[in-house]
């Protein structure tokens, strides 16, 4: 019998996908222990508690709703204090959150506040009594590390999309709780939130990613990458570090060892050589397509399908063909 | 301003890894080690801040065995003023155990700013910096992609998934450094000579008890070999067909 505390993250009042994955993992861990409860803590501005139904649908028994105007943006100190206070007042075997911009910040705070062991960015976990066996990719995804963790509660942040979200229908009981510290007293204050590119999914959520490299030759040629992404319809646009260092694209678009780690259904590498540091961020993609004029380029070693050719010619042709395929020609 | 930067000694990212006979560590034979990437950005950020201010001190710290002294010297050859080794027989995987040693040192250090990498190449955990901040009970910005300190206050940008936030924070503070801020400079010959005479202090690390330990390591499976569909625009039709019928992603 293990109770699991989950932090179900939101942005504004929108529940993030990794939140349902975290709740779903919480359910799995509670069930595997012989039936404990899953408590999902959700924090945001008034109205956030409406998301309780969704959390119940993915297996939460109790939703702990923290609603406060000061939580409209990411109030890290207040949220960490609130989760830690709750963890101290209950018997929890594990605290689960996403390895996201929020979870990356909250996980270590919780570990330090609770003096609890923590593993970030996990892809598998098994709890047995007071010990846990956890898998986590290290060395920029080049080594899968199995860790043994002693102590309870354990703090776990999960790699987005690694666990999936399975429905486990429940009607969650909603409990309102107050923030443990007033968000207004935080030493770190959000002054502005800058919204990203219009209408495109984030790299972590996109089923298709079209990424461009220096082979595109000039920033304006990224239009070809954008057009191909538009043809797929549900695609995000990524880039190599060569390109972000040149300032052709923002660093937030960078994929690889020091950029984002992605694992879409389809990854299209356009004018990318396939340096080891780039592969570190995308080699677990389901299907990889590469277009490069150099048939010896290392990207072809990981690509399921390759076209040897000039991106300035091949990409527009591919865009047209994908558009036609989508329209059912 | 007094700035500390915590740096880790990690394998070079070009390494093709093998697992050693114990099964629980990488085979280090022939592997080159250097300062971890994000920590090297943090060193550069600190040096630029000091240069801009025209005064102040930059100190680097590393927890680990004597091999970390080479990494500390490298930071000093880039321009860092002095170094502290918090000596341990081995570097534990457990980030909280390392954070405890650093926090113990920082309690008396009087630093305005303590910089870390967003995550270390080997652990890829992203724990040590933010945990140290929490142990010290100071402000913390995790994974900053822009950073500025002015008038005793800090401001930073953080990338969120598909968005970004701007934050302001009080000092003293911990900031962990993300991609996009800086690339590390190369040490100059003069810098390398000067570094030999800069102070490197070594004292025992007050590590926490590690509770996260490595059981084993394995290499991920190779991808099955792919194929070249063809050359030029003539191959596009075949590629689209394969994406529809074989990969079923279109
Ligand atoms: C510590 C460290 C961390 C790093 N982190 C990252 C990271 O996170 N992400 C990352 O991407 N890189 C990273 N790098 C950089 C990496 O080593 C490479 O330099 C980078 O990935 C190269 O980008 P690229 O493929 O766009 O450029 P290049 O390597 O220059 O490749 C361009 C490719 O385009 C092809 N090409 C040229 N013209 C055409 C044309 N007309 N049509 C078709 N093909 C053409 C060429 O054949 C070539 O293969 C890192 C490096 C270090 C040292
Ligand atoms: N042994 C260490 N000594 C000094 N700094 C470290 C050590 N380990 C990690 N760090 C710092 O903490 C950052 C994050 O490491 P990690 O939490 O292991 O991903 C690194 O980029 C370094 O700045």
| Number of helices, counting only DSSP H or I runs of 4 residues or more of chain A | 9
Task: Average the pLDDT over all residues of chain A and give the rounded result.
Answer: 96
Most residues in contact: chain pair: A-B, 101 and 88 residues
Strand content of chain B: 25-35%
User: What radius of gyration of chain A results from the CA coordinates?
Assistant: 22 Å
* Sequence of secondary-structure elements of chain A: EEEHEHEHEHEEEEEEEEHEHEHEHEH
Write down the overall geometry of chain B. Answer: globular
Q: Low-confidence parts of chain A lasting 5 or more residues at pLDDT below 50?
A: none
- Enumerate the distinct ligands: flavin-adenine dinucleotide, adenosine monophosphate
Strand content of chain A: 25-35%
Give the % helix of chain B.
Answer: 25-40%
- Main beta sheet strand tally, sense and closure of chain A: 7 strands, parallel
Q: State the total count of DSSP E strands of chain B.
A: 13
Lateral arrangement of strands in the main beta sheet of chain A:
7-11-6-1-4-5-12
Structural class from helices and strands of chain A? alpha/beta
- Low-confidence residue ranges of chain B: none
What does this structure look like?
- The complex is a heterodimer of chains A (about 325) and B (about 250).
- A 7-stranded parallel β-sheet of chain A has the order 7-11-6-1-4-5-12, with helices on both faces. Chain A has a 5-stranded parallel β-sheet with strand order 15-14-16-17-18. A 3-stranded antiparallel β-sheet of chain A has the order 8-9-10, with no helix packed on it.
- Chain A has 9 helices and 18 strands.
- The longest helix of chain A is centred in the first third of the chain and has 16 residues, at about 15-30.
- With about 325 residues, chain A is of the alpha/beta class.
- Chain B is built from 6 helices and 13 strands.
- Chain B has a 9-stranded mixed β-sheet with strand order 9-8-7-10-6-1-4-5-11, with helices on both faces. Chain B has a two-stranded antiparallel ribbon with strand order 2-3.
- In chain B, a hairpin with a 2-residue loop joins β7 (about 140-150) and β8 (about 155-160).
- In chain B, α2 crosses α5 and α3 crosses α4.
- Chain B is globular, with a radius of gyration of 21 Å.
- The interface between A and B is large, with 101 and 88 residues.
- The structure holds flavin-adenine dinucleotide and adenosine monophosphate.
């Amino acid at each position: 019998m293990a109770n699991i505390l989950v932090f179900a993250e939101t942005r504004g009042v929108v529940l993030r996908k990794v939140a349902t994955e975290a709740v779903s993992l919480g359910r799995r861990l509670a069930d595997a222990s012989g039936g404990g409860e899953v408590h999902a803590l959700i924090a945001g501005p008034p109205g956030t508690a409406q998301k309780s139904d969704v959390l119940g649908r993915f297996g939460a028994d109790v939703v702990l709703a923290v609603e406060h105007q000061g939580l409209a943006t990411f109030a890290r100190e207040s949220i960490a204090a609130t989760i830690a206070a709750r963890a101290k007042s209950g018997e929890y075997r594990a605290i689960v959150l996403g390895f996201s911009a929020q979870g990356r910040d909250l996980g270590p705070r919780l570990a330090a506040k609770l003096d609890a062991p923590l593993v970030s960015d996990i892809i598998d976990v098994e709890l047995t009594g007071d010990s846990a066996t956890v898998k986590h990719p290290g060395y920029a995804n080049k080594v899968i590390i199995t860790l043994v963790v002693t102590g309870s509660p354990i703090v776990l942040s999960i790699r987005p999309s690694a666990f999936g979200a399975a429905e486990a229908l429940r009607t969650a009981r909603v409990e309102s709780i107050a923030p443990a510290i007033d968000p207004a007293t935080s030493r770190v204050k959000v002054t502005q939130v800058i919204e990203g590119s219009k209408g495109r999914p984030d790299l972590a959520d996109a089923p298709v990613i079209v990424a461009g490299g220096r082979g595109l030759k000039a920033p304006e040629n990224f239009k070809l990458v954008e057009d191909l992404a538009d043809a797929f319809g549900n695609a995000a646009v990524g880039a190599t570090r060569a390109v972000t260092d040149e300032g052709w694209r923002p660093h937030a678009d960078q994929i690889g060892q020091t950029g984002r780690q992605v694992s879409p259904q389809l990854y299209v590498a356009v004018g990318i050589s396939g340096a080891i540091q780039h592969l570190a961020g995308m080699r677990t993609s389901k299907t990889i397509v590469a277009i490069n004029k150099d048939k010896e380029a290392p990207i072809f070693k990981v690509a399921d399908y390759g076209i040897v050719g000039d991106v300035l010619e091949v990409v527009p042709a591919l865009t047209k063909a994908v558009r036609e395929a989508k329209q059912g020609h | 301003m007094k700035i500390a930067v915590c740096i880790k000694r990690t394998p070079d990212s070009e390494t093709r890894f093998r697992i050693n006979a114990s099964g629980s560590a990488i085979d280090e034979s022939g592997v080159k080690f250097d300062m971890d990437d994000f920590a090297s950005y943090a060193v550069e950020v600190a040096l630029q801040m000091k240069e801009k201010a025209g005064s102040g001190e930059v100190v680097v710290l590393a927890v680990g065995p004597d091999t970390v002294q080479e990494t500390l010297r490298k930071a000093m050859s880039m321009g860092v003023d002095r170094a502290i080794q918090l000596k341990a027989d081995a570097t534990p995987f457990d980030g909280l155990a390392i954070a405890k040693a650093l926090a113990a040192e920082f309690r008396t250090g009087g630093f305005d700013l303590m910089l870390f990498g967003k995550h270390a190449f080997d652990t890829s955990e992203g724990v040590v910096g933010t945990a140290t901040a929490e142990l010290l009970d100071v402000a913390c910005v995790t994974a900053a992609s822009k950073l500025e300190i002015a008038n005793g206050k800090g401001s930073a940008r953080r990338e969120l998934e598909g968005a970004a936030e701007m934050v302001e924070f009080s000092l003293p503070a911990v900031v962990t450094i993300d991609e996009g801020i800086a690339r590390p400079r190369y040490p100059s010959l003069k810098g390398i000579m000067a570094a030999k005479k800069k102070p490197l202090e070594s004292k025992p690390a007050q590590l926490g008890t590690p509770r996260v330990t490595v059981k084993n390591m394995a290499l991920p499976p190779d991808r099955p070999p792919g194929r070249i569909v063809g050359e030029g625009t003539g191959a596009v039709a075949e590629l689209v067909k394969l994406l529809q019928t074989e990969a079923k992603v279109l």
